[in-house]
Design brief:
By secondary structure, this protein is of the alpha+beta class. The radius of gyration is 20 Å and the shape is globular.
Amino acid sequence: MKSKYIALLTVLVAFMFSMCDYVKNPYDIEGPSAETFDSTKRVALLEEWTGHTCIACPAAAADIDTMRSLYGESFVAISIHDNFFAEPCPPHALPGCANGAPGAFADDFRCPTGVSYSTAFPDALTFLPQGMVNRLGYPGNSHVKTRGAWPGIVDSIIQEDACASIHIDHIYNSTSRALDVRVWGTWLQSYTGTINVCVMLTESGMVGWQTNGTQCDSEFVFKHVLRECVNTPGSIAGSPLSTGTTLIGTTYSYSLPSSYTIPVAYDATNCHMVAFIYDVTTQEVLQAWEEDL
């Protein structure tokens, strides 16, 4: 029996080393230096649609956890709850596996920015889970991908040279719950196009009901839940950053015109800011970054 355990351990160790050879982390960040490090590789942003009565969505959540473990800061996720499967119960019919438990599936993680996402990318609602990785493939109807396609695209993106670096500076007043944000960076390549910047607020750590196949999980931990676009609330448009041709070495900076107040219903200690810059015409996300609140 001991020999079987040794053999299994040998296989696991070999697998771990093979992953290290396969996955390339373009960052060399330690602690506070993340604030000032100019990344030269792209960060992959997954924008995925999910819902607590979606029976296949827990598997997608596990995929996201795995990619986060593998790719670290090179991978960022936003989970959008805006669809039939995100409806609270009632009006959504209570899944049978809840056995009529009081308060089951009563959470409502929908938000106006989620509606904006679904309006802009309606193909994502055909079935769940689905998502976009840096919105590649838009507008050719190939931008929405099933979960099986996500890892390969993410691995490809994070090995590409970035058009620009991106960083987040912020000040949060825990008493007033006022948040001030500045997004800044440097163009690492010349780029021609109209560029907007978005600052999304996400929250993790909420515990609630979730269907998983034919079963119900009453202690499911929701992560990366979209709460709001703080610079254009209720819209995913974001704010203008540049237009025309931007030359290599050009710096950029965007600050919220006024403080954003974190709603009291959100646990600020579990909130995150996701900033990204994207091409307005192609919708492609050029660079992204996530920072704890």
